[in-house]
Prior knowledge:
Chains A, B: This is Carboxypeptidase. Chain A is of the alpha/beta class. Chain A has 22 helices and 13 strands. In chain A, the strands form two sheets. In chain A, strands 1, 2, 3, 6, 7, 8, 9, 10, 11, 12 and 13 form an eleven-stranded mixed sheet that branches. A two-stranded antiparallel sheet of chain A has the order 4-5.
Amino acid sequence: MEPMTFEEYLHNNKIQPSGTPVRAIERRVTEFPKIMLLRFRLDYALLLCALRLHWLSVCSADPDDVSEEALNVIYNSAMSGVIPSRAVPPEVTQKAYRTAEEDRIQALPGLDQPPNFRQYSGYLNASDGKYLHYWFVESQRNPSRDPVILWLNGGPGCSSVDGLLSELGPFHIREDGKTVFYNPWSWNKFGNVIFLESPAGVGFSYASDGNLTAGDASTAVQNYAALLDFFRKFPQFRKNDLYITGESYGGFYVPTLASVTVADGKLNLKGIAVGNGLSSNSLNDESLVFFAYYHGLIGEEVWSALRTHCCRGMPVTRENCDFQRSGLLCTNAVSGVFEIVWRIGLNVYNLYAECPGAPQGNTQWARYATDMKHLFSHARDTSMPILKRYEEDRYFKIDGDHTYFHKRELDPPCINDTRIIKYLNDPKVRQALHIPDRLPHWTVCSSIVSENYVREFNDMSPFYRRLIRSKIKILIYNGDVDMACSFLGDEWFVDKLNLDVEESRRPWRSQGQIAGFVKRYNGIDLITIKGSGHMAPKDKPVEMYKVITTFIDGNGERY
Amino acid sequence: MEPMTFEEYLHNNKIQPSGTPVRAIERRVTEFPKIMLLRFRLDYALLLCALRLHWLSVCSADPDDVSEEALNVIYNSAMSGVIPSRAVPPEVTQKAYRTAEEDRIQALPGLDQPPNFRQYSGYLNASDGKYLHYWFVESQRNPSRDPVILWLNGGPGCSSVDGLLSELGPFHIREDGKTVFYNPWSWNKFGNVIFLESPAGVGFSYASDGNLTAGDASTAVQNYAALLDFFRKFPQFRKNDLYITGESYGGFYVPTLASVTVADGKLNLKGIAVGNGLSSNSLNDESLVFFAYYHGLIGEEVWSALRTHCCRGMPVTRENCDFQRSGLLCTNAVSGVFEIVWRIGLNVYNLYAECPGAPQGNTQWARYATDMKHLFSHARDTSMPILKRYEEDRYFKIDGDHTYFHKRELDPPCINDTRIIKYLNDPKVRQALHIPDRLPHWTVCSSIVSENYVREFNDMSPFYRRLIRSKIKILIYNGDVDMACSFLGDEWFVDKLNLDVEESRRPWRSQGQIAGFVKRYNGIDLITIKGSGHMAPKDKPVEMYKVITTFIDGNGERY
């Protein structure tokens, strides 16, 4: 069967073909409680409102206290029956939701040698009519004893199956988009790995009512419900150690989900790992300005403009400057930096790698606009010409040309995933993975999810504090030439948590070479991977394998 | 004939096997005028003393004026008969110094296809008994019209023939150390290139009296004398455009030599190009601290120590900090940074490349000690334990084990030049290059030259100002992941010259990809090569070729 058109998709999923989804969302965010009640089922709305309202007071209150309250809302929901699965909805869902044995992948197209491990693909019930597609690969070592590892790619809106097929999964796809080869550094060499497409709308995941709006809190709730459902489907893994891991915007997904998991206490969570994660919006933005200058991307003219307009004429330092609230001229200077990093054709995910097809025009505008929107949220109502330009691009260039669904793809810039898109949209592959015919074309990232995503949190500190108190092991690793989420922002983030240092920063080695630097805090292992971009399991597979196995499997050995 | 032993070399060249060459040099530098008179011939001594003495007043005087006077000393010497060649000394020299036609390379061992250009190897008379080995490759395009390009590797003490065989020359050596292949991005595709081993003592260059002591001024004088002698040997190139180019410590060799050349007015100098050059000692040192932090090599602990001890508790910025004169605790903090950059096994010449054989122990100590010596010249007499340790290593580890001459090699760390060392020490190759049998083993860098080199200048600004006034075209290019001479130090250096900006900083492209950033000042083209280390013609040959041809050959075209 042909993938449906975009119009069919909208119709089938009851999505209004709104020309201004972002503006709508922004209104919702501004007039939050009232609008939310109309949009979500009551229990969700209560949960999110409470979270949001409590969160708004974070700045002036003790962060741990607020976190406690905010989290309690999730926990209470989780434990009061909101999250557990409900009756499977009709149509697609009845075909899609099946038992573990029905989800078993019998033969993966394009694979010569059958794998020496069991694997499953199907759906997990994420509550409230959301069904999240998962692809589960058992360990190649000892499935019954090895840990269960959940992997979440970021975005928001990007697919964890991309992470499977191009980063840490056992199968990688050849250039032909048809044949499959084994990745020798797959994380299922030592763990049972779940790749979860989240939230609904991402990849093959869907919402039976077509509502693909999600935010930080509702995504945590969806992910937790799906995780509970996983252990319902696969009860034999309930007693294994559980690790929640992820990348990029997974820096928000992982600690929030882990906090819910800890609070609910049903699962055997041992640790979390976050790769090139967003941990704090402001530290990520700020650090990028410094990263850009000291990596030679901006010169003395821009630096001097920043000094004048953002730093009250003082030297450009974190302490002297406020890049967000220093007025129009500062915003223009900062936007100049962001324009260079995101828009001119650099590979934002790996400064020293090529940017295939650069510059990618629309797509890059889209990602950039998303970023700018976030940075300059305070300046929305000013008459800044540069922001206006971004907004126009956002609406006209992207939304103006979507005859077919796949035109709305929001591929990450400078990353060529053509082979994976081709592979996953092959009807034989979809069939092998038990994907219902009526679901649309698979894309790396969903622009609908991304554009409608409500970013409720600004900083993950309270969640990390909570996890550390609960003795959850934490790994934060960063490829050090990534600009989307730079190592520097995460180092500042962890440093700010003010934890005791257990082992001073030192180089660590792989194959006799210095592979990065590691610093161990009481609660967090912080490690850089030298020369790696955003996707460390892809850029530096050998080094990354050493890091993750040492963390998960190493019994306190040195990196 | 067997390469001679180190003892034979010392004896033949009348070198005292001193255990403390550096201490001796340091005494000389401190008690400069008196000692210098004893060590050099009178004309040299006058020249150097005058230069040195004038230079000492640079800080308080107008730099251009001082430059004028200091340079006049060189010019006067150059024009008053000091520099022109004198009677060829006996023995080695009589065999070594020959006519151009005698210098012609008839067949280069290991090369399958004879080249489509003429090439020569022999000696140039650098005056005062110094004979510098040159290897000259004519242009593959139009030798009679193409420019003459002099290339100088740095060190001090390193060989430009290494630059020929591993960077920009037409011949590169295969791993076997025997066979030769053509480099498609050789600079002799568009120019007649002279590779000059300078000063005497480097590579196959020698001093007939065994005096291998040199400094910034005497090296400029040697180089200029050799250049004059080149045009005496090859008068047919006298009217061609001349470019003086070089790398690393060539950042000092090139502008000083160019200034002498301009002042003397005999040669047709059109421009200079400096790659990853040292331009200012203090800016190079300072910038490295920032480079290290913002590339993730040092963490918050070291940064905080720098803040406390070097920056009076204020944020770490160029403006707030004095890394050289803030006392012992600051020196310790800075030495911690330098230790990480130079000593732990990182490739200082390309942060993201491997370090073959890392850590190389002695060799790295040696280079590091050289660097430390320079940075902490003010702290020589303090009882700093860390400096003492370096000095001990310098004397005992390096000097304590030199049964054979080649044990004293000072190979650059993390660079595997084994194939080139093997090739150039093959007796058949030496014969083809017309190297006298009695000269010792060829090494990439000479520790004798390096350790005895007198660094007289601190900053090249006055020389650049002079060249700009004389309308000499200038290119400063930097691989941006080099730490030995970081792009940042050179950007700061050029910025400080306060030149008018002709073209704002912008990305430039090669093969559709962003290859770096370029900014054009009135007088200087400043350009970075993204992802390249110290040796851009080796690391990024295609990109480098575009840069150098645009500069030399481009008639003002855009990079």
